[in-house]
Give the backbone structure.
Amino acid sequence: MNVYTSSYLKSILNSKGMESRLEDADYIIINTCAVREKVKQKIISYLGKVDKIKKEDAKLIVIGCLSEVEKEEINKKFKPYLVGLFDKESDLENIGKLIEGDVYKTKIGSVSRYLPVIFGCDHFCSYCIVPFARGREKSKNLEDIIKEAEEIYDEGAKEIILLGQNVNDYGKDLKIDDGFMVLLKEVSKTPFQRISFLTSHPKNFKLKWISEFKDIPNLLQFFHLPVQSGSNKVLSLMRRGYTKEIYFEIINKIREEFPFASVTTDILVGFPGEDESDFLETVDLIKKIEFDRSFVFIYSKRPLTKGYQYEDEVPHSEKLRRINYLIKIQDDITLKRYGEYIGKEVDVLIENIKGGSGIGKEKGGRVVIVEDVTDDDIGKIVKVEIDRVNIRELFGKKC
Ligand code: SAH
Ligand code: SF4
């Protein structure tokens, strides 16, 4: 979401000219996150650094989740010109208007583009600060989304990624029955070569949708479904609203319908009450499911959340042992799964070229680094033979 708001702001402010050095800027906008305590500390220390080196009359604008939940602290320490969430396009345009002179939106040239369809979150998982920072769920109108999608296509994008903290909740607040599926089907009528969505919630991910996805030929076969834990006890303490059995059922159905899909997840280790047997259940789940990739985080206690009051904390050294153990298991699984692509041909949509190599994704959303591409290939789907892999990417040559 923050990547999107930053790129949207950039497209507005490009018309004013951008400085590459903080020391020269008249306005400095910092987009923040609040999901973990460490991130908060980094941002506060960065704000301190910026405050020291900026021009005396330069105006500081702090947006994103941290600026909403720690408004008072940021106001007191740094006296910013503006501080708050600013997540919707209209909020961002208002920032543009505050800066003197004309502002007009410039083209964003990327092949792959994000489009937020629902803001906020109603779930209140007991570890998570997001609902307090981003507020309740608010879906955009379907007609507006289609119009924005068409504009994004006209700017040259070939892939669109529909965004939401819980994208599967799309349309609930608008009382659209099965809103997420209605949205997906409507967006699939636009001429994008690829359509994707992020992030899904296992609680709202309906099994019947998985068969319906097959009717959407341009759907990227990529499913990010954060499981957080493999223990039903911990899932319940986290207020996730599903069991590991339900989670297995979803993944089995995805793999049955889309054998080449990539399935990725988020996992939280060291939540209060997670004992060794709960942890081993997570290990077992990872081994059984064999995710393409897992993003593992150490639990960080956040203010305002229900989990803040939970006792029975896991010692930091134990959290570290658990995260390292899971990362090692997942790396081996990724290498095994990705390794199966060596010698195979995949269709890659080339998004850009960096350091002489093309970067894109194959049909299952796996990142592929491609040799021998030219600027002409950007935005096109090319056939690539995979010759090696690592824990993040597949590598190959254009056929
Ligand atoms: N809406 C998404 C995730 C949003 S936050 C969902 O429901 O899954 C992204 C990830 O950050 C989460 O999946 C979780 O694994 C991690 N996260 C959230 N709160 C955290 C906390 N307090 N400490 C550590 N990681 C956290
Ligand atoms: Fe946070 Fe849970 Fe909402 Fe995801 S669903 S943003 S983890 S509260």
